[in-house]
Amino acid sequence: MDITVKKGEITTIIGPNGSGKSTLLKALTRLLRCSMGCVYLNQEDLYNIDSKKLAKCIGVLPQRHCAPPDFKVRDLVGYGRVPYQKWYEHNTEEDEKIIEWALKATGTWALRDKSIQECSGGESQRVWIATVLAQQPEILFLDEPTTYLDIAHQQETMKLVKRLNHEAGIGVVMVLHDLSHALEISDRIIVLKNGCKYGEGRPQDIITPKMMREVYDVDCDVVQIPGRKKPLIMFKEIS
């Protein structure tokens, strides 16, 4: 496949289970080495870039993450500043300002003195996003950020992603299963099928009844509702 991820945009990778979405995300972020081909960041081979320099460009939140249960939220978010520090250095005044910004940007400032174990699922997800934000990356990579969250927390996470993109100018690349979220929030969508790129483009151009049949083996209509910018997916009635 040949794809391009751009700063300042929200790009969502979709496709059926096992189509290669998380594998692609790992390849793009150097968590998994490609057996063939190359990944370039600003025309430079990803594997030629110093780790600290790379961490200042991209932030990655995998599907599964953990921290010692007694970790305070503020301390966890502080680890996002490691790429900017030497091993013997402590947080500077500038670091503290950025940690505070990351906490406030994700709505987790009130949780700063709690342990990560005391946070709910939605709170915990926002704290982890704050940790990656503290890196001040140009592009944020999120692997299924709404997994295991209820509907309210899914909406909350999607609103946060959109706000970070619009207000802070951070590019976002996500793997999502929820196609309604992908339609609503994305600037561009990449569709995978059997480990290959099926299509890439604007949500309204890519998510079509034809794509749904050929990729997901599902019959549906994609309907434009007056007053809405993005269409809605209407699945056939289950009989």
Key traits:
globular, alpha/beta, 239 residues, Rossmann fold, ABC_transporter-like_ATP-bd, single chain, six-stranded mixed β-sheet, ATP-binding cassette domain-containing protein, membrane, two-stranded antiparallel ribbon
Straight-line N-to-C gap: 38 Å
CATH architecture: 3-Layer(aba) Sandwich
- Low-confidence residue ranges: none
Order of helices and strands: EHEEHEHHHEHEHEEHHEE
> How much β-strand is present in the residues?
15-25%
CATH topology: Rossmann fold
Assign the CATH class.
Alpha Beta
The tally of strands reads 10
Count the helices. How many?
9
Structural class: alpha/beta
Give the CATH H-level superfamily. Answer: P-loop containing nucleotide triphosphate hydrolases
- Percentage of residues in helical conformation: 25-40%
Shape: globular
Q: How many distinct folded domains?
A: 1
Main sheet record: 6 strands, mixed
Lateral strand order in the biggest sheet: 4-5-6-1-7-8
Overall pLDDT metric: 90
Compute the gyration radius: what is it? 19 Å
Structural notes for this entry:
With 239 residues, the chain is of the alpha/beta class. It is built from nine helices and ten strands. It has a six-stranded mixed beta sheet with strand order 4-5-6-1-7-8, with helices on both faces. The protein has a two-stranded antiparallel sheet with strand order 2-3. A two-stranded antiparallel ribbon has the order 9-10. Strand 5 (139-143), helix 6 and strand 6 form a beta-alpha-beta unit. This is ATP-binding cassette domain-containing protein. Residues 1-219 form the ABC transporter domain. Pfam families: ABC_tran.
